[in-house]
Each structure stands twice: as structure tokens, then as C-alpha cells.
Amino acid sequence: MLRRIVLFVLCMPAVALAGPNVYLQVLGIAQDAGYPQTNCFKPHCMRAWEDKSLRRLTSSIAVVDTVSKTKYLFDATPDMSEQLYVLHQSAPDTEYTLDGVFLTHAHIGHYTGLMHFGHEAAGAKGIPVYAMPVMTSFLSSNGPWDQLVRYNNIELMPLSDGTPVEMNARLVVTPVQVPHRKEYSETVGYRIDGPNKSAVFIPDIDKWEDWETDIRAVIRGVDYALLDASFYADGELKNRDMSVIRHPHVVESMDLFEDLTDEEKSRVIFIHMNHTNPLLIDGSPAQTEVERRGFRFAREGMRLDL
Description:
This protein is of the alpha/beta class. The protein has helices spanning 2-11, 43-50, 80-90, 108-111, 133-141, 145-150, 215-220, 250-256, 262-265, 285-292; strands at residues 22-28, 60-65, 70-74, 97-102, 127-131, 154-158, 165-168, 171-178, 187-193, 198-202, 224-228, 268-271, 296-297, 303-305. It has a single domain, classed as Ribonuclease Z/Hydroxyacylglutathione hydrolase-like (Metallo-beta-lactamase, Chain A). It contains ten helices and 14 strands. The strands form two sheets. A seven-stranded mixed beta sheet has the order 6-5-4-3-2-1-14. A seven-stranded mixed beta sheet has the order 7-8-9-10-11-12-13. Mean pLDDT is 92; it is low at 15-19.
């Protein structure tokens, strides 16, 4: 019954809530280790080591409510300090409150940025951190993260699969559990409902067929679908069997989504790209192919009205 409820929540159209002026902002597009990646000195990484303008931050988004003057972060990446500065430029701390951080899971690109809230850094007070039960237990029971809790740098806010969290009259966030490696925690994506439009954010998931939910139905039920694009195609990782790495390849996703209408395809925005993914290279044949087939890929700074 719960899975049916979750499916309904994911696939339902956005409900118009009271009030305008909520938007989603892309703060990073790369896989957990960023781009270029540590100890990668191959040509595809060297171009970014040698030209800082080509570097990309780890995958993260923010939601900003210009009415309540609140902002929300989705995933706390190793690049969080820089991403909070970027967010400060569009929603200054002098006017906006960071009212929540929503975590997807306990892989390094998605929660380790919490360290920047600690007393050695920002010395934050009571930042609400939303997480699923196993993730909550992990943070409260293991150092150095438990120190953030004990020092009240963060306040853990437990989530439940498929249960919406109403942030205010304009914004509702719903966690939805997805299949992915569970070394330290479960993994969720998020449905985000603004006053006029909706988005789903799933930066990490196993193959689409491993999920009980039909991703095509999810796409049809939202205005934007920011989806896992860790790898573009098979063979991208040399000397490794990519069949054991369960991420959906971009080419696989595009084939699966081929029956969507042109308008529905335009809702798909690929994000969370490994350093080997050619979608990170502007003007690449991969970018051209994605756009030719009617899909999109995330860029840092991209804004989507909710």
C-alpha cells in the first residue's frame, strides 16, 4: 500500500498553492568527486586542471522562496562552501534564512559538506537537516557527524518514505526511496512541489528496471525531472565491467524515454555526471545528441521556476 501511495505522490500533477516566486537553482552537476577528479590526469581531466573555468562542482540544487525569504539545499556536497556562496549571491544571507538541508544518502558527494557547519568552520546553529531513518541514525551515531548534533550545529529532522513535508504554503517536499547501494544509509530522491510547478530530483539510482516505480510515469507527473546521468554510455570506464555499476546510462535512459512526447522529453534534465561523462564538455557530440533527441542536461546556475 505504501508503495502505491508513493507512486501516486510522484506521478500526480503539481497542485497550485498560494503564492508565487519559488525557484530551483542548480548549484553543481558533477558526480560525488567533482570535475576534474582527484588523481585523474588523463586528457579529459587535464583540460579542467589547466583551465579553472572548465571545472564543475558536485551535484546539488537549491530551492529559494522569495516570499518567505527562505532557501533550502538538496545534498551537502564537498563543494558546499562554494555552493553556499553562489546561493548567497542570488539569495543573500542578510535577507534569506537557510531553512533546511535535504540529504539523499550517505555517499561522499551527498552529505560530507555538513562538515562546513561545524565549529571549526561556520559554527552554525540548529540548521535543520532532513534525512531518512538509517541516515539519521548514521549521522547521530558516528563521528565526526555526531559532534554536529551534540554541538547543535545541525538539528536532525527525520523523514519517512512517501510522506510530504510542508515547508510553507508554497513549498512541499516529498522523499521517495529508490534502489541504490546501502553501505551506510538508504537512498531517496525528492519530489518538490512549488506554487505552480513541480520537480523531481534523483541524482543517484540503480538501473531504472530495478525500481518498482515507472520513471516514465514520474516524468509525466512533474514539470522537471533532474535525473542520474553518472555515465553516458557503456565502455566509458576503461578496464572495468560497467554492468556491475548499476547506474542508468544516459543513452539507456534516452532509449527508455523515446515514447514520451516532445514536451515530456524536454522535462528531463540529466545531472550528476562522472568525470568521464562527455556531457561535461561543452560542444561535445554527447551534448549535441542529447539535445537532438529532445532532452536537456543541467548547467550550473540553471534556474527553474516552481
